[in-house]
Design goal:
This protein has 963 residues and is mostly helical. 61% of the residues lie in helices and 6% in strands.
Amino acid sequence: MLRFSVLGEVRAWRGDTPLDLGPPQRRAVLAALLLREGKAVTAAELVEGIWGEDPVLRAVPALRTHVAKLRRELEPDRANRGPSSLLVSVGDGYVLRLPPGRTDIHDVAGQVAAAERLRHDDPDSARGTLESALSRWQGAALGGLPGPYAERQRARLEQWRLSILEDRLALDIETGRSAEAVAELGPLIEEHPLRERFRALLMTALYHCGRQAEALDEYGRARRALVDGVGVEPGPELSEVHARILRADLPSVGRPAPTRLAPAQLPPDIADFTGRSRVAEQIAGQLTGGGPAVAISAVGGMGGVGKTTLALHIAHQVRDRFPDGQLYVNLRGVDPDPLPTGDALGGFLRGLGVAEGDIPAGVDDRAAHLRTLLSDKRILMVLDNVRDAAQVSPLLPGTPGTAVLITSRSALTELPAVRRTRLDVLEPAEAMTLLTRILGAERVAAEQDAAFAVIEQCACLPLAVRIVGARLAVRPQWTIASLVARLADENQRLEVLQTGDLTLEAAFRLGYGQLNTEQARAFRTLARADVPDFPVDGAAALLGVPVPQAELVCESLVDLSLLETPAPGRYRFHDLLRLFAARLAGTAASHDAGESEAEIVTRLLDYYLATTKNLLGALDYSNTTLLLVPTTVPGHTFAGGAEGQSWNDIERPVIIALHRQAARLGGRAVALAADLAWVMAELMDTGSRARELADGLKALLDTAIRDGDHASARRLRVALGAMMQIGLGEVEASLEFLQPISQPADDAERRLQVLAEILLGVADRRVGNTKDSHRHYANAIAWTRALDDRSLEAWILALATRTLCESGQYAEAVAVAERAIALAQESSNAVALGWATHELAATRSMLGDHELALELAADAVRMTHRNGVRLWEGWARTRLAQIHLRAGHDAAAESEATQALRLLSKAADPLDRARALFLRASARTGDAEAAAREHADAAEIFRRAGLPAPTPATLFSPGPDQS
């Protein structure tokens, strides 16, 4: 019979045999189906629930693969590709058809209903039933599962658990356990300060303990928390309890029925426990073998070798041999502040049913009382993470029957009659099995050599293997091989394998206090850059350290859940953590020399400007880089334009955020941001966030004008002109930013003048003013020759070719294009070469030489594809589609226009997309309705831009000269 658990890690069993449910995403698919309780779930709902609103490219195929794997695991006897009777396809989605009562949620619901029936006549039994229901939670529900659906359900199930806990606490008070309720409610209220029923229960419990004044004080604290926290007064339940305490008329409660307690304090066994079978059998025999003395076994070994994991696994194996219960305590022996022995004794006494008021005050008296209670009992005690013999000796029982299992890094040589086991690392095959259970067999099998390399680099240490597995499990984009590379440097390996507190809630509050100096500074510093995320080399610039060191510290913060890593080599803060870190930075600023917000943001802008300089160089704009503000870091380098395009797409939101922050800060940050904007204008690829980028540039321009920074203001005006015209297709709006500089002061301003003249030439061509377009290009060429930049001249000539062609000056257009091609080849400017080639092709097509035109246009497409810039290739393919259409090749024209639209889909300029859309519509021959719709859509885009609707004859021609 299949059984499923979701109140903790998602697990499944066939009978008593656990099933391999694979990696976290596969478990998330199963959980989504289980929680729908027999209702169908569409593929779209599953994809959104697991991958979010921005799923990976192949999310649906990945979903199908996960479902296929689940079917094989859940129905091993099903014929290959035969229909499933359990995980059934419904439309494009799925439904999991299970008989009732197969999940722990159903079990808990049944127990809650039973407790409700028992409550009036047998409150003690009702309380025990709810206690049993609460024990079904083995950690946070849906533990480790990714995706928004799991987050929502995790929150819902946690609220259900708290509601059950409230009912059980109410029964604690009703059955005379008010003191125990007081002890439990204190930490719960610290964790949930606005949960009014917890407050009401604590007041009631304090009242029944004879602590009426404290109960009334608690009402005051509750009211302040509610008013200060959410601005509301206490609700009816809390107010009623307060009033009844004032009147001293709360109903009396009974005393708890004397019951024989059987504590069950063991934490859950580890689902992926691996190996150790011989040593586990040996220690289990020591604990259960009997004899005239207390059986004490101690497991020792280095940190991370798996002592606690082994001890808990053994304890669960033998728990049925100890019918009087199991006691567990983590003595925190390696922490700076170990658990006091008296606190551990108090916890054991409470677990054995001793009322709070009956627990002795002193350690010796508590130890004696514990030995009395353990006499003649068969109880298993697990004393985890022991510091030394002095800490643990008072906890030991005095008579046989009870057995003790200890874990410690210390040998505990002072303790007599202890059987010691020194735990070694895993065997290689065991370590591989552990990694496979964490990641899933499919992922490990796909990179088996890399998996063996990771095991070797981890030296088969279980904690190291578990850290590697955990990192990879929550980073599905990472390959195992990528981690092999990170572990290759032996000098850095231990740092790579470091992990912090893996409990998320504790990490937020306690993690910072546990950071070393370098980590704490990084946590504060990185948060001062108000960006959505950042790359590892950007982190290096922020911190002023080499990239490998920055990666180590960022990864250590990820391990502490103080940073997130959405992709390999990228990091981001959770919004609340950013606020927390920013507050810390504010209080620590006086201690960190040079760590003001302005200094930190300037360092990151310096990195991005250095990187965009490298991108310009990779795209043959290297002369421009000589005119930009000097930078202090090398920046990211690029193998070619394709890599640069990808970088540009990824980093654009970061650059937008930096522009906004620089505008707020002013000073050197504005100068760096202005040069960064200049570079982006040179590239003419604004992407799909041009409006946000333009808003950021306007804010920067306002700051530059306010501060009297004329050089930055000039750069920003030209950048805004490019953004408005090329990015947004707002030709008229761009003109106010593109007024020529009357007297350029230096080569940088001369280069800006060239860019402004180019953009003005493009603007005039777009609105049909070809005469002024020629004039602006002539001015640009004159300034370029003054700069002695033949590469730039080639680019301008290529642009001028288009104006000549569209004004019908075909012979001149051919001559200018051929001159542009010669200069581009001479100066190795691949960008200008591709542009000039497709403009020459368009001109040849207008002259009727379609064969040569198609050959040239195909060459231009190949060149721009090699350059790797999506926008440029989109323009080249648009030209090729136009030439195919003029040559009567409708199918080829439609295909090229479709590819152009795909490339231009992420560009903001609607006019480029409109041209490609109009071409495709004109080439459609088999779908008149679609062609008419696309013609109309394209015409509307031109109309909104203030341009006449095109026809196939005038698509790339503005019509009569408006000069």
